[in-house]
Design a protein that fits this description.
InterPro entries: HATPase_C_sf, HATPase_dom
Strand order of the largest sheet: 1-2-3-5-4
Number of strands: 5
Structural class: alpha+beta
Pfam families: HATPase_c
Strand content: 25-35%
CATH topology: Heat Shock Protein 90
Distance between the termini: 40 Å
Number of domains: 1
Bound molecules: adenosine-5'-triphosphate, magnesium ion
Protein name: Anti-sigma regulatory factor
CATH class: Alpha Beta
Shape: globular
CATH superfamily: Histidine kinase-like ATPase, C-terminal domain
CATH architecture: 2-Layer Sandwich
Number of helices: 5
Oligomer: single chain
Organism: Streptomyces ambofaciens
Helix content: 25-40%
């Protein structure tokens, strides 16, 4: 049985993209993510889901809370059965686009998450899987990670 935190959300329209962004935000808050961590994950999810919609012809996102030791995170998989990506390395390069975009969605989202994997087969589809961990749980104590100062919190 899937854990209670498991969600599958369709990505076949702009309205569903907006719903997805809100669902990711809510899941990130529930997982204890700070504001900056929430925003990084929502931004990455938005770009990857936009790719699912625009390049993959629509699909779905699976989201679930994960834990490793005492660390809480969120895993998201963006799945479509579209044309696939022929050259993943090229697609990951900053500025490369096949569709007149900025070519920053894949490369930018990779920098916003902790783990990132692309599984794509030409003619069969694409799955991009990402994981983000809640920084405040990483060291087993609360860090003021959102201030960007690099100093431990109180
Ligand atoms: N799910 C997908 N299915 C098929 N091709 C994809 C998929 N996701 C990305 N690609 C390919 O990788 C390229 C790079 O994607 P990326 O998101 O970086 O840029 P983009 O979507 O073209 O522009 P933008 O900066 O607006 O996101 C796309 O132009 C497309 O060719
Ligand atoms: Mg894109």
């Amino acid at each position: 049985m899937k854990p209670a935190s498991f969600q599958r959300l369709l990505v076949t329209s702009d309205v569903e993209l907006a719903v997805l962004r809100q669902s990711v935000r809510t899941a990130a808050i529930t997982a204890g993510f700070g504001l900056v961590e929430q925003t990084k994950l929502v931004t990455a999810a938005s770009e990857l889901a936009r790719n699912t919609l625009l390049h993959g012809g629509g699909g779905y996102v699976e989201m679930e809370q994960v834990t490793s030791s005492a660390v809480v995170g969120l895993r998201l998989a963006f799945v479509d059965e579209g044309p696939g990506i022929r050259d993943v390395e090229q697609a990951m390069a900053d500025g490369w686009t096949s569709a007149g975009g900025l070519g920053l969605g894949l490369s930018g989202s990779r920098r916003l998450v902790d783990e990132f994997a692309v599984d794509s087969k030409p003619g069969q589809g694409t799955t991009v899987t990402v994981v983000s961990w809640a920084a405040r749980h990483r060291a087993g104590r609360r860090w003021d990670g959102d201030s960007g100062t690099g100093h431990p919190g109180p």
